[in-house]
Design brief:
Layout lengths: L7 E3 L5 E3 L2 E2 H8 L3 E5 H19 L3 E6 L6 H9 L3 E4 L2 H9 L7 E3 L6 H9 L4 E4 L2 H13 L4 E8 L21 E2 L4 H10 L4 E7 L10 H21 L5 E3 L18 H18 L5 E4 L3 H4 L3 E13 L3 E6 L8 H5 L5 E3 L9 E6 L8 E8 L7 E5 L20 E5 L2 E6 L4 H4 L5
Parallel strand pairs: 4-20, 5-6, 5-13, 6-7, 7-8, 8-9, 9-10, 9-11, 11-12, 12-13, 15-17
Antiparallel strand pairs: 1-2, 2-3, 4-14, 14-15, 14-19, 16-19, 17-18, 20-21
Helix pairs in contact: 2-9, 5-6, 8-9
The chain binds ligand LLP.
The site of ligand LLP has 18 residues, from helix 10.
């Protein structure tokens, strides 16, 4: 593997290509900075998950794309074509999915504090499932569903008490988390018992998500085991039968050469085995299984291309290479000190001889993309690509310093097209009064 992304290569001109198309050509046509994604690679990832669900779990499940990783109309159209479901976490994501023509029955609506109007929107549009986080929204869903004369299929978000080894901010399975109801305190059992007698809702399943960017199978296997034991307990104690088990997402991807991801199909393979075994052990029916990968579907399919501006050498201290984007389009360094790799578009394989810090253009010292990156000689005017930015970049972008958001360009079978236009200055003031 030459790069951390499979869809990259080098052409006869010596330039970086994505999906076979020259990144310099794309940058010249669409200007910088810009996100560029390879659609075939996104589709390939969907197919890996869907095939695994078929091969290892007899197709008795659904793979959802967790659209918080990258939400725009085009991505929902891809997911529809690939036969995926989607997870949405806000009225905005739901609206975008519906506008893109995504089938409502394959939408799962998540979130730890859904607003009344968001719940109403989900009910009005007949979303497939609402994943209930807490008692407040449970009562609200029941009330609004009865008013609409509907019965809503619900899952409960459970904290299985697993502390997956990852960055603190993305650990959500443990008890000290704002998400969901806890297993070990009996809270989960109580709320399900209560819900099973409520009108307007039908308890169909349980859900957990133990964290993000995880490289091990064991935490997922453990989560599956705990959740299956919980399903067994609900049946034994209360006669409540659970049809659906949603095990969340969180599968790790390769951001740098130090990351060693597991093949994506291995996760479904591993948890399927546990779920089958536990169904037998606990004498419960084999549940419909749902998985929710987000990052691993899109991260390695995208890069961000920038143009280098100022190169400042502070003798004996540091060389700052400033690019024409930064924390507004990629806040992951300032938020999590995330690591990335970058290459020069016109000499992507040149020897890395110099340590530099790649910084953005925002008025903020922490506005850094890569600290202490080993790079070839860089000059002002060079095109630089930061790799594996397909997830949680566009979706977490901001207009800090009133910098317009970047376009998302899709490369598909040798052609490029815009999935999201670049924001204009006019867009920036369109809500200003
Ligand atoms: N399902 C649920 C309920 C989730 O909360 C998440 C992510 C996923 C699925 C998808 O997880 P993934 O496969 O993408 O790891 N902004 C952070 C990541 C936050 C993830 C939040 N939940 C980042 O940039 O790393």
């Amino acid at each position: 593997m030459k790069f951390v992304m499979d869809c990259l290569d080098v052409n006869e001109k010596g330039n970086l290509t994505i999906g076979g198309v020259d990144v310099e050509t794309i940058a010249n046509e669409y200007q910088t900075p810009a996100y560029i994604m390879d659609e075939n690679s996104i589709r390939e990832n969907c197919r890996i998950y869907n095939k695994a669900m078929k091969d290892y779990y007899n197709g008795n499940g659904l793979v959802l794309y967790a659209s918080k990783a990258l939400s725009c109309m085009h991505i929902y159209r891809i997911m529809k074509e690939e036969g995926m479901g989607v997870d949405v976490v806000s009225g905005g994501e739901l609206f975008t999915a519906l506008k893109a023509g995504f089938p409502a029955d394959k939408i799962y609506f998540h979130g730890n504090n859904k607003k009344d109007d968001e719940i109403q929107m989900a009910i009005d549009n007949n979303v497939g499932r609402i994943v209930v986080d807490n008692i407040f929204e449970l009562d609200k869903i029941s009330e609004l569903a009865q008013k609409a004369n509907k019965t809503i299929d619900i899952l409960f978000r459970i904290k299985p008490g697993i502390d997956a080894h990852t960055h603190d901010f993305v650990q959500t399975g443990q008890i000290d988390s704002k998400f969901g109801v806890a297993l070990e305190t009996g809270e989960a059992e109580e709320i399900i018992k209560y819900a099973s007698g409520l009108k307007g809702v039908r308890v169909v399943g349980v859900h957990c998500h133990i964290g993000s960017q995880i490289f091990e199978l064991a935490p997922f296997e453990l989560a599956a085991e705990k959740m299956m034991n919980f399903i067994g307990d609900l049946k034994d104690k209360y006669g409540i039968e659970i049809d659906e088990l949603n095990l969340g997402g969180g599968y790790g991807i390769k951001y740098t050469e130090h990351d060693t991801p597991i093949n994506y199909d291995k996760y479904i393979q591993a948890v399927s085995k546990v779920v089958y075994e536990m169904s037998e052990k606990r004498n419960v029916k084999t549940p419909f299984m749902v998985m929710e990968p987000g990052r691993s579907i899109v991260a390695s399919s995208g890069l961000t291309v920038y143009k280098v501006g100022a190169v400042k050498e502070i003798p004996n201290i540091r060389t700052y290479v400033s690019v024409d984007g930064g924390m507004g389009d990629n806040p992951r360094y300032i938020m999590y000190q995330s690591e990335y790799e970058a290459v020069l578009v016109k000499k992507p394989l040149a020897e890395k001889i110099k340590k530099v810090t790649i910084a953005g253009k925002c008025c903020e010292s922490g506005d850094i993309l890569i600290k202490d990156a080993m790079m070839p000689e860089i000059n002002s005017g060079d095109l630089l690509a930061v790799l594996a930015t397909g997830a949680y970049n566009y979706s977490m972008a901001s207009n800090y310093n009133r910098i317009p958001r970047l376009p998302v360009i899709m490369v598909y079978n040798g052609e490029t097209k815009l999935a999201v236009k670049r924001e204009s200055y006019e867009d920036l003031i369109k809500n200003d009064l």
